[in-house]
Structures are given as C-alpha cells and as structure tokens.
Amino acid sequence: MKLLYIIILHKATIFAKYNKYVLRISLTLHIFKIKKQLNKKIMNTKESEGFYKLSFLQRVGFGSGDFAQNLIFQTVMQYVSFFFGTIAGLPKSAVALLVFIPPVINIFMSMWFGTFVDKHNPKLGKYRSYLLFGGIPLMAFAVLCFYDGFHGSIVYYFTTYIVMCLLYTIVSLPYGALFASLTRDGREMDKLTSVRMLLANLGGLTIAFGVPTMVAYFSPTNTIKGEGDAQAWFYTMCILAVLGVFLLIFCFSQSKERVIEKAEKAAKLKASDMWNELVQNKPLRIVALFIFTAFAMMSIYNAVGAYYTTYFLGAEELTGWFQGVGFLPAFLFLPFIPAIKKAIGKKQMFIGFLVVAIVGMALLYIVSAFEALRSTWLIMVAQFIKSTGIIVATGYMWALVPEVISYGEWKTGKRMPGAINAIIGIVFQLGMAIGLFFPNMLLGLVGFDKTDVTPLALQGILWLVAVIPAILLFVLIFIMSKYELTDEKIDMINKEIEERNSK
After folding, report:
1. Which SS3 state, helix, strand or coil, does residue 482 take?
2. Among 7, 142, 144, 229, which is disulfide-ready with 160 (CB 3.0 to 4.6 Å)?
3. What is the pLDDT of residue 41?
4. What is the CA 447 to chain-centroid distance, rounded?
C-alpha cells in the first residue's frame, strides 16, 4: 500500500510539472499571438496613415517606367546631336538651335500641365493614366525623329523633335508625381529609388551599347556614321519603341496611387500656386538648381561621347563600349544606396560621390591628353570611376523630390506633386537644352568638320567630355551643401501632415 502511494505521488508530481510546462508554453504562445496581432494592427494603422509598404514586384513595375523613358531620354542625350549632324545632314548651328528651342517651348507646356494634372482625376488613375495616353505617341514620334525620309529638312526635324519633347513631358511629369503618391515611408522610398535607378540605368545601358551595335548590324557597311546608315537608325528605333510601349504598360499595371490630395482641395489649386510654392519652398529651389546643373553637365559629356570615340580616339568601334561602361557602376552601387546613406548620411553621400566623379574626370583628361598614356583600358577605367560618382549622385537626387513635396505640403497645407514635378521638369529640360546646345555651338566655333578634324577641334571635344563637366561637378557640390532636410526631419514632417489630415 505504501508502495502504491509512492507511485501515485510520483505520477502526480510528474503530471503537475508537465502541466506547468504546458501552461507556460500555452501562455507564451498566447502572448506571441497577441503581439503578432498588435504588430499587425500597428502596421495597418501606419499604412492607413500613408506609410505603405511596397512589394518587390511593385518596385520593379514602377521602375520599368524609368527603363522605358530612358530608351527615349538617353537616345536624345547620347545620339540625337550625332544623328542630326552626321546622318540627317544638318549644319552644326541648326543642330544647336534644334536641341535648344523645343525644350524652351516645353517650359510653357509644363507650367500649365503641372496644375492640370493636380486638378484632374482620369478614370484610369490620376497620374498613371498618362503612361498610356502619352506613352504610345511618345514612342511613335521618337521613331519619326530618326526617320531620314526628309534628308536635310530643318522643318521636318524641328517638328518631330518638338512634338516628341512635348509628349515626353506628358509622360514624365505625371510619372514623377506618381512616384510621390506610392508611399510616405522614407525607407520604402530609398528601396524604390534603388530599384528604379537600376532599371533606368539598364535602359541607359541598352541605349549606350545597344544603339551603335544594332545600327552597325543593320548598316550595309557596318558603321554608324555613313550617309547610307539612315535606315539602320530607323530600324533600331522601331525595335526600341516597341520595347518601350510594353514596359510602360507593365508600369501602369503595377503602380497604385495611395498618397494623393483630396479632390475638393485639388480642385482649388491654381497655376499661380506653383510659383508661390517655389518662393516659399527653399529645399525645392535647391533641388531644382541641383537638377538643372546635373542635367546640363550630363548632357554636355553625353552629347560628345560618340564624337570622342569616333574622332578623338579614332576608334568608332569603341563607342558602344565607352558609353556602356558609363552605366555599369549602377548595377554595383545603386543596390547599396540605403546602406551607404545610413552609414554616412544623405548630404555626405552626395558630396562624396561627386568628388569621386571629379577624380574620374581628371583621370580621363590626363590619359586622353597625353598620347603615351592613351590606352583603351585606362580610358575605360577613368570612364568607370567618373560614372560611379555621377550615377549615384544623380540617381539618388530623384528621391529628394518627394521630400520637397512633403515639405511644401507641411508648410502651405497644399499637396502639389504635379506642380512641383512641373518645376522639376522645367529645370531639367532647360538644363538638358543648354547642355545639348553648348557642345554643338562649341564644335561649330572650333571648326569641327567630320572630313577634316583639326587639332583645335580635338581639343574642343576633350574639353567637352572632361573639363567643363568637372567644373560643373564642383558647382553641384556647393549646391548640395545647402540642402538641409535630414531623414529625421522628413519623418517628423510626414507624421505631422498625417496627424493634421486625420483631424
């Protein structure tokens, strides 16, 4: 009996211990479940306040819009001056005016269109609908710009180029506003910026390397500069245009507008609000000046890239490689932008990479100016270093636009992404116009003639590809030193806006 009592007592003790552990595990699981539900509730609340999370597919989908637009933009930056001056048979003075006047006309279009976009709500989306409405005609006119059926006709090329520039604004201006409408979350914006700039540079690489390769393939003489190569340029642009249309449709399908102004408030916006915003929004003025200078700088050296390889180096076959190497750093550095920015700070990241670009420009000038150092691999190394700095700095500058939009909303109570992107569109097109105008005028002044290239003309090309852009890089460093919106301040601004809107 005593033995039975001991056995029962032992079993009871084990059972009690077992129940204790079961109770503890059960309690732990219950607490974990409550925490999970609480975190989900907090996350949903945060998302309801505008801090939305974006999936990888959404980031890639939105970035495909940058890829598509760069098929046009980079073609204009890198090859339109070369095509008009060597294939279409236009004089240098005419080319200079042609690339300058349409963007200036487009400034007036942007002034009206920015407010129009903010005030209207098309059925297919406030901003994303223009990817379809403007995107398909844009691709068609890009092809027409490279059609040589009216050889030497200034009227034809002026008309097609002006229309293409206007259509580019109809796509790019709402696209910039769409970027700011996806989320207020700064960390999500950093990730999205990295992905979209990767895809933008993939588009640039496609143009830099793909255009001369495809043109040479379609050319009967395997060249890119002969008068008989016009049809090869046309075929190349047809292929790029079809690709661009598919990319814009994909971008449309994956983009969801979430952070937008209420319809009743948007209806009260006026065109004059855009200029009031520029006056009251100091960070906007700094970003606008930075973008203007950046595009002037990039347009100058991109416009003469083909001249540099074809005439300065005398190696036409290097054109695609030289331009293409300029986009490779994007795939190595852009994915790490959020980590780099977190480690050293936003302003320091900009200034650091701009200094890297200056070093690359100096090296490019030295190895080009001294024939004893002029080797293909050194030129490519210099191009890679220069492009590393420029790609990171000019790539991340687009992440500043949503910041100045939020700052303007915080200060004035009006959210105007369309109007602010109109201002950005005006300055970048004006910068690009000046950047494309200047090389053509300088090449004309130094007497560039493709049949007889003088030493003075070669020096003009070298200054355009290395010296003048380096000077503008110093200007960019000074401009960025004045930017004062930190990540912490932007987070505070966005939280205050959402608290104000929820009342």
Report:
1. coil
2. 144
3. 47
4. 35
Confidence of residue 269 (pLDDT cuts 50, 70, 90): low
Tokens linked to 186: 């700064």
329-361: string of b/e by CB count within 10 Å (b at 16+)?
bbeebbeebbebbeeeebbebbbbbbebbbbbb
CA–CA distance, 251 with 175 (Å, rounded to integer): 10
The structure tokens listed for 12 are 């009871």
Compute the distance between CA of residue 379 and CA of residue 360 in angstroms, rounded to an integer: 10
Q: What is the CA radius of gyration of the chain?
A: 28
Joined tokens for residue 316: 């036409």
- Which distant-in-sequence residues (6+ apart) come within 8 Å of 305 by Cβ? 78, 319, 322, 323, 326, 465
How many residues in total does the chain contain?
503
Confidence of residue 139 (pLDDT cuts 50, 70, 90): very high
Using DSSP's 3-state secondary structure scheme, residue 317 falls into: helix
CA–chain centroid gap for 459, Å, is 31
The kind and range of the H/E element at 120 are: none
* CA geometry: angle 312, 316, 319, nearest 5 deg: 90
**Among 278, 282, 279, 327, residue whose Cα is nearest residue 302:** 327
Taking phi over 0 as left and psi of -120 to 50 as alpha, with beta for the rest, 152 belongs to left
- pLDDT, tens digit, 9 for 90 and up, residues 327-338: 888 888 888 888
